[in-house]
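Example record used in the benchmark description.
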Amino acid sequence: MRATRRALVVAALIASALACGRDAPPVPVGRAVRDDLGRTVVVPVTVTRVLSLAPSNTELMFALGAGQRLVGRTDADDFPPEAAAVPSVGSLFPPDDERIVATRPDLVLMIDGNADLRQRLAERGLPVVVFQPRTLDGILDTARRLGSLLGREAAAEALVARLEAQRRAVLTRLPADRPRVFYEVWSSPLTAAGPATFVGDLVRTAGGRNALGADLGDWPRLDVETLLAADPDVLLLSRPGARAEVVAGQRPGYSVLRAVSAGRVIEVVDPDLLERAGPRAFEGLAWLAAALHPQAFGRAP
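Model output (structure tokens):
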């Protein structure tokens, strides 16, 4: 009788376990992360093959000591020099979908701007995460989030500490005056960086004020009259040779600008430092602060 009762108990426990197994949710095959577009993306728990489709993300991968996990990049991803050894999937204008998929990535890193490609890759089952920092703080946050995805948390914290130290070294030397800055991205058509852009955050952090209002948008195309009305204290030009055009009087109307009269027309030495939202932007911050406040930093840009 005792043996029969024991057998019944064991049978009941097995049945209960099987029932719980049917009701329990399936074991997750990855982890859900939220990207900068507010999308929830399921990423493998262990990420070993990363495809980067943006120079800023490629630079961040190497800065985290994870460059060896890259299985692909774009032609524009040219830093650090070690990136040249990573196979390129070509340009994204237009993208070669088959070449991209052939890299067999665990994770695809993108920036915003190519929703069609993002959708096509997602339909093929590839986890696509968009990192699009709009501020220096956003870069630090991205470093921590990507470090977590890669299991490189310690490296991410070390990187963040180094970048924060670079920023503090700039902020402690900034004077009170804040010149009004016009950042020209392109001259034809005349295109500028608005205050809500990543470049706008750099200008603000480096001790400047954007000469344009936020109402014009992030990357407004302007006529010369709008520039003349803004009349900035400093004219920053990101295209090589642009300063020579202004100084030589080849830009109609520019001669009356306050920045031109004061000799504060500055050609950006390396636009990638200011326009790529990656770790080197903190070097760009130091350069920009010196460009806007040469006396405080003891050097001309």
